[in-house]
Write a structure and sequence with these properties.
It comes from Cyprinodon variegatus. Keywords: Coiled coil, Endosome, Golgi apparatus, Lipid transport, Repeat, Transport. InterPro entries: ARM-like, ARM-type_fold, HEAT_type_2, LisH, RELCH. It is found in: Golgi apparatus, trans-Golgi network; Recycling endosome. The longest helix is centred in the N-terminal third of the chain and has 40 residues. Among the domains are: about 35 residues, no CATH class; about 55 residues, no CATH class; about 150 residues, Alpha Horseshoe (Serine Threonine Protein Phosphatase 5, Tetratricopeptide repeat); about 240 residues, no CATH class; about 100 residues. Helix content is about 60%, strand content about 0%. By secondary structure, it is mainly alpha-helical. The N and C termini lie far apart (about 110 Å). Helix 34 runs antiparallel to helix 35, helix 36 packs antiparallel against helix 38 and helix 43 runs antiparallel to helix 44. The radius of gyration is 52 Å and the shape is elongated.
Amino acid sequence: MASVNPFDVSDSEEEAERRPNETVDTERSPSEGAPGPPSGSPFSPPADAEAPTLMLSSNRTSPSGEATSVSAAATSTMTGSAETRVSVDIIAAQLLRDQYILTALEFHTELLEAGRELPRLRDYFSNPGNFERQSGTPPAKDQGLGSGGPLNRAGSISTLDSLDFARYSDDGNRETDERVAESEVPSQERKNFKSSPEIQEPIRPLEKRALNFLVNEYLLKNEYKLSAITFSDENDDQDFELWDDVGLNIPKPPDLLQLYRNGGSVLCSPRDKVDASVGVVFGDLPGNCVSREPQKKPDLSQQQQSEVVQELEYQLSLLSNEKQSLVEQIKKLQRCFQTTHYFSPWLSPAFQQALLSFCRMCSDSRLGAEVSRIADSEESVMLMLGRCLPHIVPNVLLAKREELIPLILCTACLHPEPKERDQLLHILFNLIKRPDDEQRQMILTGCVAFARHVGPTRVEAELLPQCWEQINHKYPERRLLVAEACGALAPYLPKEIRSSLVLSMLQQMLTEDKADMVREAVVKSLGIIMGYIDDSDKYAQGCELMLLSLGDPSERVVNAVHQVFIPAFAAWTLELGNLHTALIPSLLARIEKLLTQGEHGLDEHKLHVFLSALQSLIPPLFAVVLQNAPFTSRAKLHEDIPAIEVTRFPRPASPLQDMAIIIGSRELLSSLLLLYDHQLEHEGTTGWESLLWVVNQLLPQLIEIVGRINVTSSTCVHEFSRFFWRLCRTFGKIFTNTKVKPQFQEILRLSEENVDASAGNGILTKATVPIYATGVLTCYNQEEDRKLLVGFLEDVMTTLSLSHASLDSLKASFVELGANPVYHELLLTVLWYGVVHTSALVRCTAARMFELLVKGVNETLVAQRVVPALITLSSDPEISVRIATIPAFGTIMETVTQKELLERVKMQLASFLEDPQYQDQHSLHIEIIRTFGRVGPNAEPRFRDDFVLPHLHKLALANNSQSVESKRIDIAIHLFEAYSALSCCFISEEVMINHFLPGLRCLHADMEQLSPEHEVILGSMIKECEIKVENRGITDAQGSISIASSLVGEDAKTKFLSKMGQLTTSGAMLANVFQRKK
């Protein structure tokens, strides 16, 4: 069904069908001009332009036959041609003059609909005095009334806004004698008279729909909801949600209250109207050509409306261009006028031009043209800068080019041409060949300002391509600028671009760029991207990037991962809710897989990567626990909340790992910590899912992993110790005492039955012991904590000793704790407990532990605590205890410089070597030789020359007469290792002749019978030593000689090294073979 046009008020369909054949066109005489600007104006249209005209059609009629009269009136103005054009103003004047008021009203309405208001009609219909009813008889024709007599109301009303509900009556058929002079009727009676329902004509369908809409709107606004529902049900053929459903092609009028207050009149905005008499060609409007009916807007299709809009836009652009051209012509004429104004009037223009040519001006070149054309608007300034900056930049010193950044950015922001903007941004990114840190910061600051000004769309279209172009630039500084720009621009990019293009660019640079500083910037920018990403599908890619960057060979890149990327990625997982459900479990699974695959050799680097990532996730994990606790909603900020202790949390690696920043503020964190401690201590963890996950899943899995790592790997022990230390310090003392320690203590049952000495796999021999001791028991340093640590180490030492189990776990604990001087006194206390223990096994273990502790302890403690304890043990009734003290004595000789201490140790070692009771102690001799080989190269030279080498000579000589072959070969092998280590030292000629060469010859004699392989090497060593001694007398060489460096000839070197490689010697000895005393 075709839409109804409320403005089509034809009386019948047959009449509407006849209208196309009733068109009468009139043309205005050229001599009649409509009011307009003077012809001399520079803005006046060309001389051959058509005057504003209107194609008049009799497609609207009135009951009184105005249309015929209008046609006659228009015909009377013809100038003789078959078709003439008449000004719309003349037509309006004729209609008003002949009192065709309704026809003039419809003419006025049509002009308003076309957006061209005629002042004559506007003024006439806006004057209420033109429509006041007069008493008495109607005036005659010659008095200005039309043939229709009184002003009867036609059945033609176009729009609601053409009605004046408060002023006019719709009674158009009253007889003349029923009229009453307005002055004789009181105002209230006049209002009653005009609004009386008996004198209104029947309501029309569109009027009814419009009023229904307004009434329903009134009921809803004033809370008459039931009435509104009932009213809506009674008018179920109408949609009260949409004004367009009414069918009127006008904007929605004000509500009933506004109509009532304004007397029903609705004023149109002046901006929506154009005077039809001011130089506008009516025929240019769409839908108003000669052979077409007036346009019915509700019947226009979408395509037709689009075509109309395009046509109007095209005409508008033409007019705008013409206007710009005319403005430029005016300015040119004004400049010419100003130029010639100061010349005498008798000078001809040619003479003036010739005279001015003697001024030395240059406007032919590019720069001359720019100088002679001064910008006089903001746009022209931008255009000028866009033209000039590409020529200015190359001529500015490199060190000062950053001064151009504001100019380039402002021009790029405001320039209207995309091509010029692209060129300017290209200049910005190529402004400096190799920008330093300060210059890069300036460029990035400008890029951020540009992004804030232009918005995400232009940042994507204009800035990102510049980054992409330089992603593989040959200079690392330029690639670094790209990496930093990706992070700086992340907040201003569309979210789709952040998680796709920018992420891919950074991933490419992370995997391909060879410069450490570029990859470091890439990691930081990736962290910023993770802070703004909202695509959960990118979680897997984020995990991959985290592990990839953690495995980077550069330490600065790895530090950036821990400081920026992991905290930002963890914050995103907090939002996703999968930090403790996905990220941490995946890392634990990788560690377990690594331990399973590494039974024959653990990849300690990968373990470090995964464990360091876990360690960086501890702060966000604790934030999850606090934010999902039962008491979170009760946290309040008070002024009396105590401040957080400085040592409450471990020192964060970056601000992003600071708990106060993660939570939001120190005050809120303090409030939550108070509630957290109270909850753990008094109310328990029931319903606290995040904390229960840590207690029931994370801790048991970690403890199980700890039991599987190699206890002799100091790196692994240290990594896990630091992890547990940070975990316990972050979660607090109450959590550590009530949740962590009980789980370890349940596993580490300190008894002999818990140590399987035969299998060697008891829990006390695993890494669980040193990690619990150094990672958990050292978290807090109060007296009770220290007592607990001392007791644990004493129990472990006792249990392992009595069980004849491996001491590796205890040694690992001493090494880890001994690295911190704070625990030296504590460890000495533990060892003294072993010194005075009743069991020789425990005393022997204590003696061996001194060797590990001596290197890190200051000489005062060595003199006051260590040496007395060792001397006590050296006189122990058990020979095994005495032998166990020898390595510790040797270590003292290696590290201590006090002569008194060295003499005491020398005397004790001499007693072991010279006392007859030890002559047949094979184990003691082996321990002394091993110790001499270990400490000799690093010991004080005098001690080595006067004590070590002479006693090695004696031991080698005595071994020649050893009757037990097994003991003889054992001594010989250890002597060979000791001499190999000492051969790298500088030895005086006297000692060389008296002790070193004789000792080598004794050892050579043993090796001839026992090990031919060793005998060859010893022969080479002896030969070279003899050559050196002989040459010394010839060359008067001064000082010491090095046996290892004296081996001459490639054959001898090759033979020596190959034989050394074939031998089975201890790692400790070979490590010292080529060391030199410094």
